[in-house]
Amino acid sequence: MSLFKVLRTASLAAALLGSVSASALAADLTIGVRAGPLSVDPHFTAAGTHAEAVKHIFDSLVKSGNNLELEPGLATSWTAIDPTTWEFKLRQGVKFHDGSDFTAEDVKFSIERIPAVTGPNPTTIYVRRVRGIEIVDPYTIRIKTDGPAPTLPNDFIRLFVVSHIAAKDFSASADKAAEGFNSGKAAIGTGPYKFVSWTPKEQLVVEKFDGYWGPKEPWDKVIRKEIPNDAARVAQLKAGQVDIIARIPSSDVPTLEKDTKLSIVRQESVYLFNIAFDFRDKPPQVSAKDGSPLPKNPFQDPKVREAFDLAIDREALTEVAMEGMGAVQSQLVTPNIFGWNPNVKPTKADPKKAKALLAEAGYPNGFKVTFSFTNDRLPGDKDVGTTIAQMLTAVGIQVEANAQPGAVFFPANTRGDYSMTMSGWGTLTGEANYTLSSLTHSNDPAKKLGAFNLRGYVNPTMDKLIEDAAVEMDTAKREKLLMDANALVATDRPYLAVASTISAWGMKKTISIVPRSDEDTLAMNIRPAK
Predict the structure, then answer these.
(1) Separation between Cα atoms, residue 389 and residue 187, nearest integer Å
(2) Are strands 262-277 and 495-508 parallel, antiparallel or unpaired?
(3) For residue 116, how many other CB atoms are within 10 A of its CB?
């Protein structure tokens, strides 16, 4: 063989070996999730599964730690320089995925586009306190608020920053935004991963951004597969078709823990189930048992709401319906949230007293109500809802259980179709005012409060507590106001918090995860096992 042929053969072999080595070293990650984004535009909706997905592509101004503590994100620091002005110092040297520089212009643009492009579960709740934006210099921005706003940094954990250059032509409306972001044209962030493709209801694909300002990621490509069916998600993990799955059904946890090829990680969650009552004069799904109209809405009577509270055996719910993967709650926030009240004790079930209260309220034989809840939002939601319906039936209420996919439930709930509901809610900002101002303040668009109070609950005392807490800059005083508001929820019962979830992840032994209390399954928290 000639020297030329020998060298050529050696070169080809080396190239082939290099290719194989690179392939062997390539690290891809496939995550099986219950639900994915509703768009690639981070400002489209406040839904938790949406934010979870877009966090891979877009950074927020302030980051939320694994236990919801505030951490620097695109802002390195923040200071209240007067009661109505917050100054944010921005991180320098940050690049967007297209190589352009991140500056204060992008923050201002991102805040201002939200009202025009937001869709269901509006993201306007995160910028509702913003009255004006001043760019001091390329890396300093001042936010003027509509009054003292002590929780603005908490709200900004969901202020995802988009490129004002890439998104400028896709910010006139939600439809226009979808055109640009879902195609990838405008999906230019500063996050650890770059957008590759999105197939609605199927998968989101992203690839590592080598220019990321933060820790380097071990995964070259991340595929987030939507597998809403719990059994299918578990089956794909066991078959090795995915590397990790989120939200394992409680019934499958003991079996998977015995599988020597898998690891299981559990984490108490900030998500909890709560029941919402209809306070309107003519609720559409409440009637006498024979279907005839009632003279008044029974849910307007506090005795009826207390009866429902006492009919629910929370311990049985967590132990049986949730198969040990839940914790008893009687507040709309979990104990790790600022403003949780340690003096509010979980309600103990008392069916006998519940029946007596119904009789005192004028319903000795109960009444009829349709109870609507999700069956794919949180682990066990269908079982929890069905069990609650049975508990209410035991005290004389005729309950029609109506389990629906979230895609059906939430639009119908927003339209006002339902009169008694149960869904999951998590206090994702780590501060109780986020939840109280959204759910229990009277619905007041002018004040931008009560956006998710969909059934007419009004309590002036509640409103004042929430409004005072929203502007109180003294931390101790603000905490007391929020604790008082949580105590009032527990006694007035516009909502009944019943149980929070304990989430479980299952994964191959070759990887590990640092779990988060908001249940986000982030590639940034997943690493090759040591």
Answers:
(1) 44
(2) antiparallel
(3) 13
Give pLDDT, residue 26: 55
Task: Output Rg (C-alpha) for the chain, integer angstroms.
Answer: 25
Q: Name the one residue in this structure whose structure tokens are 């998977």.
A: 256
Kindly list the distances between the CA atom of residue 530 and the CA atoms of 94, 242, 351, 510, 513, in Å, as whole numbers in the listed order: 30, 20, 52, 8, 11
Task: Evaluate whether 50 touches 38 at the Cβ level (below 8 Å).
Answer: yes
Q: Quick one: which of 500, 473, 158 has its CA closest to 336?
A: 500
Query: What phi, psi does 103 have (nearest 5°)?
Result: -145, 180
Q: How far, in Å, CA of 213 to CA of 203, rounded?
A: 26
CB distance 525 to 192 below 8 Å: no
Instruction: Express each pLDDT in 413-429 by its tens digit.
Output: 999 999 999 989 999 88
Q: What is the DSSP string of 177-193?
A: HHHHHHTTSS---SSSE
CB 299 within 8 A of CB 279: yes
Q: Distance from CA of residue 227 to its chain's centroid? A: 18
Alpha carbon distances (Å) from 81 to 72, 76, 91, 230: 18, 16, 19, 49
Q: What is the pLDDT, as a whole number, of residue 233? A: 96
- Pick the closest to residue 196 from 164, 219, 170 (CA basis): 219
Look at residue 448 in the predicted model and tell me its pLDDT: 84
User: Residue 2: its pLDDT value, please?
Assistant: 40
- The answer to whether residues 426 and 269 touch, using CB atoms and an 8 Å cutoff, is yes
Rounded CA-CA distance 477/481 in Å is: 6
What is the SS3 assignment for 15? helix
CA dist., res. 83 & res. 77, Å (int): 17
In the chain (530 residues long), the average pLDDT of successive 10-residue segments reads: 39 41 63 94 93 97 93 98 96 98 98 94 91 98 95 95 97 93 97 98 97 97 95 96 94 92 94 96 96 97 98 96 93 95 97 98 97 89 96 98 92 94 91 94 92 94 96 94 98 97 95 94 95
What's the CA gap between 279 and 88, in Å, rounded? 41
Q: How many helices (H) and strands (E) does the chain have?
A: 15, 20
Angle between helix axes 475-492 and 460-471 (nearest 10 degrees) is 160
